[in-house]
Amino acid sequence: MNLQRKIAMVTKRRTLPDCLVQSLDCHEYRYEIENNIQDAIRKAYDVFAIDTSVVSTNLKKVRSQIIATNKSSFFTSLDFFDEPNELTKKRLAKFLWQIEADHSINHELYSFFDETTLNTQYGNFMYFGFQSRMSQREVLGVRTLSLPKTPLVRVHSMCYTGDIFHSLRCNCREELENSLKVINEEGGILIYSQQSGRGIGALNKIKVYEHQKKGADTVEAQHLENFPNDLRTYDYLKDVFFHFGITQIKLITSNPTKVVACKNAGVAVVQTVKLLSTINEHNRDYLKTKMEKNHHNFQAEFSMLR
Ligand SMILES: Nc1nc2c(ncn2[C@@H]2O[C@H](COP(=O)(O)OP(=O)(O)OP(=O)(O)O)[C@@H](O)[C@H]2O)c(=O)[nH]1
């Protein structure tokens, strides 16, 4: 019986959280090959980050088929869950708790899925995708065929209205197009995260746009819908940078949060590249609020208006 079914039986839960299923898949995989634990660790290395100190200390102790329970759920014996009794339930609770904790030190949150060539009007790129190991989230992007040592990087958040419907209310499409142009010229990568509407989703953006129509600014409109100002996360960056061997970047952005996010993802931001946005009557207030309330850099654009 597979481990997922065992756990479902013991806990009487039909469905398990996504992150747990992912984790259990890893455990299952390990179980099959645990005869040779060194080998198992080596093969699972892309699944779990195992601190080298753990490898050198714990592994030497663990040789048999029954793996000693240790700090990490990675070392939990699956035989623990054989009997659906009270003790098993307690062990299971601890095990699940440990799995959750171990996920926080997971080396890889997003796995590289694949890439292929994509010829676009801005140049010939490689089109790639990553999949979250914990959720259904996907991260797509394009990169130049070769990447320089310090590539230009654009971390772009999806915008249905701007990117797809050419809306004039935001600068999203202009930034997307200009980024693709410069990335093609200099070499780099555009990471496209599907966190539309600063993370509130495309549908909720309809609601906040309605509030803005009635006079609320972008931030106030978020609050009127009970959303914080910016719900985006950047947890995918680390794995994307790591996969492509990127350690230092020139970041195309006006958004200071993205600089922090990239630094926290382990790369050096050696330069931020500011691409000028065109101010028009529809996006003026939006860009002004971004500058005044969210500290985005649109000084150049607004000083040119004066
Ligand atoms: N909630 C909300 N989201 C908006 C609004 N206008 C644009 N957006 C979203 O804001 C996001 C803009 O993301 P990015 O293009 O990555 O830009 P940024 O975070 O402003 O930073 P830059 O890197 O400087 O472009 C997209 O997800 C848009 O859908 C708005 O009025 N309300």
UniProtKB/TrEMBL annotation:
It catalyses: GTP + 4 H2O = 2,5-diamino-6-hydroxy-4-(5-phosphoribosylamino)-pyrimidine + formate + 2 phosphate + 3 H(+). GO terms for molecular function: 3,4-dihydroxy-2-butanone-4-phosphate synthase activity; GTP binding; GTP cyclohydrolase II activity. One of its GO terms (cellular component) is cytosol. The keyword Hydrolase applies. Keywords: GTP-binding, Hydrolase, Nucleotide-binding, Riboflavin biosynthesis. Pathway: Cofactor biosynthesis; riboflavin biosynthesis. Gene3D superfamilies: GTP cyclohydrolase II (3.40.50.10990). Its EC number is 3.5.4.25. It comes from the Bacteria. One of its GO terms (biological process) is riboflavin biosynthetic process. Residues 115-273 form the GTP cyclohydrolase II domain. This is GTP cyclohydrolase II.
